[in-house]
């Protein structure tokens, strides 16, 4: 009897079929470099050295165990939690998968993103890696919801190209290179003598942006249509130097944005202009 011929079609596993379009993947190299060459790792090692000295002087091994547990816990939070990090797109939603011992999958709708923060500490500048966090409706706030705060990290450690890829996944038309960076007035140097040149701000067609920080440099971005309110703030030293800052308010979350140490006249004009930008952006979005 002649054997029947059967055509076998090999298909990818259902999980791979459902993954959708790959946006970004964080390789193990970036994850380890970002975690180990960072201010967090340096501080952990410093504390460990102090605990080691205390252990040798006081002959209390418990202190050594506690310091080792703290270091391992910090490294795990940076690596194990984000192991195998991938961001994919399926339809109008993004999906993030991460985790070594247990895989966590979270959905993210770009239209729910209220603000984005791009961070890089002084040691990570050696590696060229950045971290991106978001404020999203329904996510937690650092200090009140540990899981929600961790989920707010949408790029653990990535190159600048990775950062731009993630931003364009949220806002395809965003072009940071077209936003002019404005420095602080020269007299603001009295308030920020060391980090003076790191404080800049800019207004784009769709977003407002501010950058600050010397040890850890942060760029905060808020779309005009996501701004809920704004306020002008002025401390006693700022008042004496004729300076003020504008706080941009969105949903509570890990990202905050302030345009710091502006000339008072500039701050007042910018305040009302930004209110109008936000109003128009919401009307167009609706």
Describe the structure in your own words.
- It is a single chain.
- By secondary structure, this protein is an alpha+beta fold.
- It contains 8 helices and 14 strands.
- The strands form 3 sheets. A 7-stranded antiparallel β-sheet has the order 7-6-5-11-10-9-8. A 4-stranded antiparallel β-sheet has the order 1-2-3-4, covered by helices on one side.
- A hairpin with an 8-residue loop joins strand 5 (113-121) and strand 6 (130-136).
Outline:
The chain is α+β, with helices and mostly antiparallel strands and 286 residues long. It has helices at residues 14-18, 28-36, 39-58, 61-78, 146-151, 160-170, 236-240, 264-285, and strands spanning 21-25, 86-90, 93-98, 104-108, 113-121, 130-136, 153-158, 182-183, 200-203, 207-212, 216-223, 229-233, 243-249, 257-263.
Determine the strand fraction and express it as a percent band: 25-35%
Side-by-side strand order of the widest sheet: 7-6-5-11-10-9-8
C-alpha-based Rg, rounded: 23 Å
Number of strands: 14
Span between N and C termini? Answer: 71 Å
Structural class: alpha+beta
Helical residue percent band:
25-40%
Topology:
Elements: H1 14-18, E1 21-25, H2 28-36, H3 39-58, H4 61-78, E2 86-90, E3 93-98, E4 104-108, E5 113-121, E6 130-136, H5 146-151, E7 153-158, H6 160-170, E8 182-183, E9 200-203, E10 207-212, E11 216-223, E12 229-233, H7 236-240, E13 243-249, E14 257-263, H8 264-285
Antiparallel strand pairs: 1-2, 2-3, 3-4, 5-6, 5-11, 6-7, 8-9, 9-10, 10-11, 12-13, 13-14
